[in-house]
Write a structure and sequence with these properties.
11-stranded mixed sheet; 381 residues; alpha/beta; binds S-adenosyl-L-homocysteine; binds iron/sulfur cluster; 33% helix; TIM Barrel; two-stranded parallel ribbon; DNA polymerase, domain 1; elongated
């Protein structure tokens, strides 16, 4: 093949990952190499509409252009190390993100939804006492392509059974507002018509309360969830050290600001820790705290993990708390815990497989372990 000077220049650069690009960014990137702007739109259509990620199949691009683009853009996605399916239909994907690190994403089915819970960081520096991820210091923040990649891999896998993700929540490993550029970059790709095209209302960012970054959730016009987890500052600081820096009064003020900007209610996540946040009197305190905040409260019974310092309350205690909160007038949601048998429930995700793949839950309400496991580095996609 005769190599032009331009081709030589192109072969010399390190290719960029497609999943990191917004439309505008790809247009600018291609422009650097003298390519027409509309090529970016064509490639986006192939990738997100047709799921074609091989330039040879992008037939509206000339042969020469296709071979040049191969040197400029890759479609690499993090390899799937494990894919586990719970007895309740929850699925967990473990991805290899290099350097001996892995991250997890979880698919949660419900009546009318298929929600993907994605990770935003490897580990987390917020060190919440009840959270397994919080026990693992931050190793690295994920890139836009690693976040979009989680979505695309899972979506491709679900396609085989004619299923489609309907929602995405940033409630996996890590604090999304500690990694704003990549998180909001991935949100742009996921909601835009030229990208995945998922409505903004189907996207939720959950935060432990990094107040200075919360305005970005409102600006992106996506849903906000706040990990409240306590009914006063004393308890919250005890279980979530970040509360020392950003106490409840300021946090709730910021929540009101979000509501004023978007008109959307906030989801307050409230983990029930036995003896610490699960008493009837705590439900009453919680009501006093939240009565003026436009929100719904998601009650989450604590999920066990290796080395946990807390216990899960009994089902009776959980019910009593829920009933009292409802009686007082809080809008509450008590969801059945999903995926406990494959360590996929809230707060059980890990950067390495430092818990067993499965847990015997035969004494619990969701039945025995009958977990389907696909492992050995071969993705079951
Ligand atoms: N870092 C973000 C998002 C990830 S955590 C945040 O904190 O909001 C997602 C949710 O899992 C949080 O609401 C957290 O309170 C909850 N969680 C963490 N550990 C848990 C555990 N062991 N049991 C139940 N919920 C837990
Ligand atoms: Fe980090 Fe959220 Fe876990 Fe707290 S609850 S340690 S912020 S992942």
């Amino acid at each position: 093949m005769h190599l032009t000077e331009e081709t030589l220049a192109i072969t010399a650069v390190a290719p960029r990952n497609f999943y990191s690009f917004t439309l505008e960014q790809l247009e600018a990137y291609l422009k650097q190499y003298g390519k027409e702007k509309f090529r970016a739109q064509q490639i986006f259509k192939w990738v997100y509409e047709q799921r074609v990620t091989n330039f040879d199949e992008m037939l509206n691009l000339s042969k020469d252009l296709r071979s040049e683009l191969k040197n400029l853009i890759t479609f690499d996605l993090p390899p799937v190390l494990k894919h586990l399916v719970s007895v309740d239909g929850t699925q967990k994907f473990l991805f290899d993100v290099g350097g001996g690190n892995s991250i997890e994403a979880v698919v949660i089915p419900s009546d009318d939804r298929l929600t993907l819970c994605v990770s935003s960081e490897i580990g987390c520096n917020m060190a919440c006492k009840f959270c397994f991820t919080g026990k693992q210091k931050l190793k690295r923040r994920l890139s836009t392509e690693e976040i979009v990649g989680q979505f695309m891999i899972v979506q491709d896998s679900l396609k085989k059974t004619n299923q489609k993700l309907s929602n995405i929540v940033f409630m996996g490993m890590g604090e999304p507002l500690d990694n704003c550029d990549a998180v909001f970059g991935s949100i742009e790709v996921i909601h835009s018509p030229w990208g995945v095209n998922l409505s903004r209302k189907k996207i939720t960012v959950s935060t432990s309360g990094l107040i200075p970054e919360m305005y970005r959730v409102a600006n992106a016009k996506v849903r906000l969830a706040v990990s409240l987890n306590a009914y006063n500052d004393e308890v919250r600081t005890q279980v979530m050290p970040i509360n020392k820096k950003y106490p409840l009064k300021d946090l709730l003020e910021e929540c009101k600001r979000y509501y004023r900007a978007t008109g959307e209610k906030i989801t307050m996540e409230y983990v029930l820790l036995k003896g610490i946040t699960d008493q009837i009197s705590h439900a009453r305190e919680l009501y006093k705290l939240l009565k003026d905040i436009p929100c719904k409260v998601n009650i989450i019974p604590f999920n066990e993990h290796p080395g946990a310092d807390y216990e899960r309350p009994s089902d009776e205690t959980v019910q009593a708390f829920h009933s009292e909160a409802m009686r007082l007038g809080l809008q509450t949601l008590l969801r059945r815990t999903m995926g406990r048998d494959i360590f996929a429930a809230c707060g059980q995700l890990a950067t390495k497989v430092d818990h067993p793949d499965t847990m015997d839950i035969s004494n619990s309400k969701i039945g025995g372990t009958n977990v389907r496991s696909f492992s050995s580095g071969q993705p079951s996609l």
